[in-house]
Give the backbone structure.
Amino acid sequence: MSEAAAQPEFVPPVAPLDGPTASGRWTRETCAALDAADPHASRRAAFDLEEGLVYLDGNSLGPLSAGARARLHEAVEREWRRDLIRSWNTAGWFELPERVGARLARLLGARPGEVLVDDSTSANLFKLALAAIQARGGRGRIVSEAGNFPTDLYVLQGLARLCPGVEFVAVPREAIPAAIRAGAALVVLTHVHYKSGEMYDLPGITRLAHEAGAAVLWDLSHSVGAVPVDLRAAGADLAVGCGYKYLNGGPGAPAFLYVREDLQASLSSPLCGWMGHAEPFAFDDAYAPAPGLRRFRCGTPPVLALSALDGALEAFEGVDLAALRAKAIGLATLFRELVARECAHHGPVLASPADPARCGNHVGYAHPRGYEIVQALIDRGVIGDFRAPDLMRFGFAPLYVRYVDVWDAVARLREVLETRAYERPEYARRAAVT
Ligand SMILES: Cc1ncc(COP(=O)(O)O)c(C=O)c1O
């Protein structure tokens, strides 16, 4: 069964109201009624969101949660200020990358000893890709997708420069299966595309790669905490992903890496730092890898950032991920219907697959003035983001986004488009981060 088919079906969540078309039935009142009936509605209270703000950028940076704030406060005030260096032992700072990894494992369909949280997604991608290639004699083709997130492509280009026996190819999405069948040592793909939101069939591609003798490294940055992922069931080999997006770990939160249990002993980290040594405090001159996943640690872990992410993960405790995903599809479907009804004649063009179940939890619209429109929306309390050359992105993180937020966002988008408010010159000034 394909992964898209395995997603919960979207059931229109309200009884139809009078109206000429399905999309014509929505009103702000029906949205409020949906929120009142939403079993996840109480989860929003865990997030510190300003009243009146519509936050549709959790796919880039999740908001601060009570759990993250409390855990960070404890790490600063008790563990660092009072207990000082003793906290490496008394507060378990040393084991934090594994402990937070174990907490995250459920969201990935992984076992506790298969997930480590440390370093950035870029660094983890490098470590795992090179480890996989070295396990295959340092040779072979790496296949990825043209238009994949740039860091993935840059890391793999750099890796190929380091390893004369490695050829790196990035092919269009449609050509991925043929490129795998043509022979690959490693396939590196982003499960949910950072622009279009389009989602790969993770179990299907993993199976195809294994049949062709290749390992697969999944970038789950836009998947974890957004769509149900079952790495174990898929037989996935390796994965990485961000802690600051849907996991709400805070700006620059450490990333995770996943290595299937039976592969761990056969892979070595190419960044042999002391924290990945079997006995860091033996201070041996010679490197000997730690057993298990700890070998993929490199330097001293970012304790405060790990603590914030640890606390942020509380928001997922007891959450049924399939039900959460069903809500996200409901939010995205409403947004798409309302944009089609209210805004389509002003030029935004859907740049995501038509079926929300084939996407992660964000949707993209192309518009030649996309950057300016996003700035005008931010001025009106609706935060999305922009990806060059022309893409407006809106993310629907179901732990805190409400149906009325979707309604209000589209109302403000329509106003910006109708009044051409985006033409104000200050909106054209490009900031460093878009
Ligand atoms: C798919 C994907 N991979 C990797 C990254 C970047 O990871 P990092 O900056 O943590 O290395 C991003 C950031 O948006 C991303 O979208």
